[in-house]
Model the fold of this input.
Amino acid sequence: MSTSTEQLTEQLAATTLLRFATAGSVDDGKSTLVGRLLHDSKSVLADQLEAVEHASRSRGQEAPDLALLTDGLRAEREQGITIDVAYRYFATPRRRFILADTPGHVQYTRNMVTGASTAELAVVLVDARNGVVEQTRRHAAVAALLRVPHVVLAVNKMDLVDYREPVFAAIAEEFTTYASELGVPEITAIPISALAGDNVVEPSANMDWYGGPTVLEHLETVPVSHDLTACHARFPVQYVIRPQTAEHPDYRGYAGQIAAGAFRVGEEITVLPSGKTSTITGIDALGESVDIAWAPQSVTIRLADDIDISRGDLLAPSGDAPATTQDIEATVCHVADRALAVGQRVLLKHTTRTVKAIVKEIPSRLTLDDLSQHPTPGQLVANDIGRVVVRTAEPLALDTYADSRRTGSFLLIDPADGTTLAAGMAGDSFATAKAVVVDASGDGADDKDEEGWDF
Done:
């Protein structure tokens, strides 16, 4: 089966999928917005709505509490706050959606990193009565760090400020100025009332001064890029397939999920970190041979040469292969309760490869109020965002996060118990930020420690 790039692009455009995340401070009405979006777009099953109505009546509420559509944990319902990331799948005639509803409480900011890491759009809620608060700035910073290309500022509870335009305009200007300094490329501000349904799915009759799209209209029409030629093609090997059966005595295939870009039969590739080269002789997808495959398809690639390739290796076009390195400078969001300190031994997981590493330096920690860098903090604690320098035991084929969100990201893991410590993004912090210049040979841990981590 042969598929041209033009046909492929048309197929993708006809079935576009938008991944988006919601974030907001506590009591900004985020779960109500998500519930309203699902309800008014007819994406709620009858039995789900009936269960919400029953739960609302048992709590003495006359109208159904739409926040219960997403706040599924008992603790969430009892406390009236979102704790865990909730994923919802829904569709309209124009587009399919995967929604990550992330917590707003400051202690759960790290959960937003999980929800927004694969998002193409982030909806940041602000209570019209309170305006932009510290948690709003934190969410904007996380969205900028994760290079989320589209941000929607949803100014909620406009009904509680009498739908006044000056209130909305002041909040929109303050947030837009702050987010622009972070390098967020596109910001759309929408005044809404999630409780009343104003400008969520249907236009509001109470805000005739607003002429922009509703939240759903913007979600349906925001451009999602599927330009295959603009992506650096990357294929992390997950598994080597050697059936060694009578039917397939010499079959050797490398299975995994394409992280970015597209691969074609006949293309010359380089295997990293070894640097050996070969040519793609076949691509198997869903039991069939194809001439081209693209992200995020899971496929098996066959090569012309028998090369020593195993899990954790990366295949890339020979003319566009990333450089390998053992010294990584990155921004990390610290997600564990235990601190991350200079000299600490960790495991670094990058795509399908996990290697030993040492934290050589923590040059700075980000101060969200004014975006200044607090120098040499010594350690990072839960919810901190900071710069780190890490030395790995083996070379890694890392892109910068600005070039590839999949192959420019990594996790730092505690080798003792497997706890995820931090989510890292290689390269510069923000789109407009300058790189933090550090001395990778500074006063951090020695290349060899008492347990023999010698690199």
Observations:
- Helices lie at 5-14, 30-40, 46-58, 74-79, 109-116, 134-145, 165-182, 215-221.
